[in-house]
C-alpha cells in the first residue's frame, strides 16, 4: 500500500536475463459510465486495470472516505461494500472478501488492509486483490486488481504433473513425464522432484480470472532452477493444458542474488511512477533490509529458502530520473539524469557485521524535479563499500579477511524497498 504522496514503490533485487512475460487471457475491459461517475463522486484520481475496476484511487485534496470507525479492517470492508459498484461486485461478493493481511505502517497510525476475492472452492490467484490504506477511520488510498463479478467455469482434465510439464517446456525445456522422479502433496501444492532441475517444483489448482468472463479452472506452477538463477510462475488451463500467463519471478528470487557480471556497481531498478503526468519529486526513502523469510502456505518456513547475508545489503546508491513527457519513452539510459548521490555510508554497517538497524528504511531529501520514471543504481554493498571490511584484518595469511576480494557477498546485492514522494505523507503524523 502506498501512502497518498508515495508515487512509486519497488522491490530492489538483482536483475537476471529472463524470458518475456506473456498474458493471453483477452482484451482489457473499459469501465462503465456508472463506475466513472462513482469514482468522480469520491473526488478521486483513478486509473483502471484490465478488468475495468480501479487499479488505483487517490484524492489529491484529502481522503476518499472518513468516519468509518477505529477498526481498520472493518473500515476497509465498509469502504469496499459502500463502493462495490466501482469494483463490479455484488453485495454478497463484497461482504465475502477474504482478509489477507492487516499491516501497520512503520510510521504513524496507518494500516494497509488487503482483501481477496474467491471463486468457489478455489483460491483466486494473480488478480482479485483490493488494498485499502486506512488511518483513524479515513481511507487515504486504494489499489486493486479486483476482477468483478463472475462464475467459475471450465473442467480439470489434466493432472498437476502434466500442467507443470507444460509450463516447464514452454520456457524452453524439453522434458517428458519420465523427468518427474517423485511427487507429494504438501500444503495445498503438488511438490515435484524433477531430475533435470535442482530444487522442488510446485503445481496447484487455482481459479484464474479472465477479463469479462469470470474465472476458469487452472494450475499455478512454479518452475524454479536456483542454480541457473531462473524462475517462472505460470498459469495453465486445466482443460487444454495451454499456458495462458507466464511471468518471471527471478527478480523476486533470493536463491541467486548474484549481480550481473559479478559486479554490484551498476545493478539497478527503474520505477514507472503512477499516472500519465510528471510528478514533482521532493524526497525518497530506501531500505536495505533483507526480505522476510519465505514460508509455505501452512505458515511454516520454506525449507528451500536459502539464508541471507547483511554483508550483501545496499550501502551507497545513486538516483536518476527521466521525464517521458519531455524526453521520450525513458528506455535504456535515454533521458535519465542524475538527481541524487547518497553518502558513502548511507547504510552504515560497522564492526563486527552490519546490523538490521543499520539497513532499515531511511529518508533522503532530493532536489525538486519533475519525473515520470525514477531509477535507483547501486554503487556499493556493505561488503564492497565499508572500510571496516577491507584489507588484511588479522595476522593470519591463511584466513582471507578482505571482503571485496575473498567473499561471495562482494558479487551479491540485497535491498528491500524504494519509495518516491512528492511531499509529506498524510499517513505519517
Main attributes of the structure:
single chain; 429 residues; mainly beta; Nuclear Transport Factor 2, Chain: A; Jelly Rolls; 3 domains; 8-stranded mixed sheet; 6-stranded antiparallel sheet; 8 helices; 12% helix; 34% strand; disordered N terminus
Short structural summary:
The protein is mainly beta and 429 residues long. The protein has helices at 33-41, 72-82, 91-95, 160-170, 324-327, 356-359, 382-385, 403-406, and strands spanning 6-10, 22-23, 45-48, 54-58, 98-104, 111-116, 118-119, 122-123, 129-135, 138-144, 152-153, 180-186, 189-194, 201-209, 215-225, 230-237, 243-248, 268-272, 279-287, 314-322, 337-341, 362-371, 373-381, 417-421. The strands form five sheets. Strands 2, 11, 12, 13, 14, 15, 16 and 17 form an eight-stranded mixed sheet that branches.
Characterization of the model:
By secondary structure, the protein is mainly beta. The chain has three domains: 24-144; 152-252, Nuclear Transport Factor 2, Chain: A, CATH 3.10.450; 260-421, Jelly Rolls. It is 12% helix and 34% strand. It is built from eight helices and 24 strands. It has helices spanning 33-41, 72-82, 91-95, 160-170, 324-327, 356-359, 382-385, 403-406; strands at residues 6-10, 22-23, 45-48, 54-58, 98-104, 111-116, 118-119, 122-123, 129-135, 138-144, 152-153, 180-186, 189-194, 201-209, 215-225, 230-237, 243-248, 268-272, 279-287, 314-322, 337-341, 362-371, 373-381, 417-421. The strands form five sheets. Strands 2, 11, 12, 13, 14, 15, 16 and 17 form an eight-stranded mixed sheet that branches. Strands 3-4-10-9-6-5 form a six-stranded antiparallel sheet, with helices on one face. β13 (189-194) and β14 form a beta hairpin. The radius of gyration is 23 Å and the shape is globular. The relative contact order is 0.16. The model is unreliable at 1-16, 251-256 and 423-429 (pLDDT under 50).
